[in-house]
Amino acid sequence: MKDDQIKAKVQEQFAKNAEKYVSSATHAKGTDLEAMVQWLQPSQDWTFLDVATGGGHVSKTISPHVGQVFATDLTPQMLATARKHLTATCNNVYYILADAEALPFLDETFDAVACRIAAHHFPNPQNFVAEVSRVLKPGGKFLLIDNVAPLDAELDHFMNTTEKLRDESHGRCFTIQEWSHWFNEQGLVITKSENRRKSFDFPVWVRRTTKTEEQVDSVVNHILGANEATQDYFSVVVTNGEIQSFQIDEWMVLVEKA
Predict the structure, then answer these.
(1) Distance in angstroms (rounded) separating the CA atoms of residues 234 and 74
(2) Could you give the CA distance from residue 86 to residue 116 in angstroms, rounded to a whole number?
(3) What is the per-residue pLDDT across 8-52, written as a single tens digit (0 to 9) for each?
(4) 234 vs 242: CA distance, rounded Å
(5) Measured between alpha carbons, how far is 70 from 57 in angstroms, rounded to an integer?
(6) Are 120 and 88 in contact (CB under 8 A)?
(7) Does some domain include residue 235?
(8) Nearest to 233 by CA among 223, 248, 219
(9) CA separation for the pair 47, 134 (Å, rounded)
């Protein structure tokens, strides 16, 4: 599938589910939102970029601590939904339609950039990292939070297949090693990172993006058909034959432009 087709699929999926991403516990809550402020140590004179803002949770968290926030998203409906929910409380946030792999900003514009739980939808993450480096000022900070694939090829395949069966707009969860390589290519130096485990309430998670019960069944059958070692790795909890929850790997990393 070509890049423009992939991005059109992302727009279609998020346009239909915009409100769900605002209220989703996975996106709206989490210790990572609080940790973002602690890690970034933002300043009131900062100009901040929130890439693929989704429900606007990063912008909402950061806006009280900086001068200006530019919230971008590829999907017009998603961006409009974020604005609707943030306008009353965040008066320094500007909303801009933008492709994460071709950001519409001049070089060295931002003091800091963040992207949370979105990059696995980008078809060319290396281009995204290059764009982040380009728009960051020297010494600027970039905070990435995203689901990551295990190094083990079988576990990687299982995780990404699970995501793709549930969400047709899913691209790929990459490994920490792949992200680290792209950072290094662009002169972005890792200053802090944390490996995390993220739990999903399976019945809620699987129906956020699936279109039919047949699609739900395909995800269920894929997970229940995995071997014991795979189910153990992803902490799959099954009660009376029904999947209750499971866990995936997430990486929170702070880098600085040299």
Answers:
(1) 31
(2) 17
(3) 765 766 555 545 555 454 555 578 998 999 999 999 999 999 999
(4) 16
(5) 13
(6) no
(7) no
(8) 248
(9) 15
110-116 and 47-51 as β-strands: parallel, antiparallel, unpaired?
parallel
Provide the CATH number for the domain around residue 140.
Answer: 3.40.50.150
* Tokens at 89, concatenated: 């409380």
Tokens standing for 120?
A: 């696995």
> Each residue of 158-187: pLDDT tens digit?
999 999 999 988 999 999 999 999 999 999
Instruction: Enter the tokens of residue 105.
Output: 């900003």
Q: Which of 205, 210, 73 is nearest to 147 (CA)?
A: 205
**Entry field: residues in the chain:** 258
3-class DSSP assignment, residue 105: coil
Contacts (Cβ under 8 Å, ≥6 apart) of 104: 96, 98
In three-state secondary structure terms, 96 is strand
Token pair 């890049």 is found at 3
Domain region containing 132: 3-150+169-199+249-257
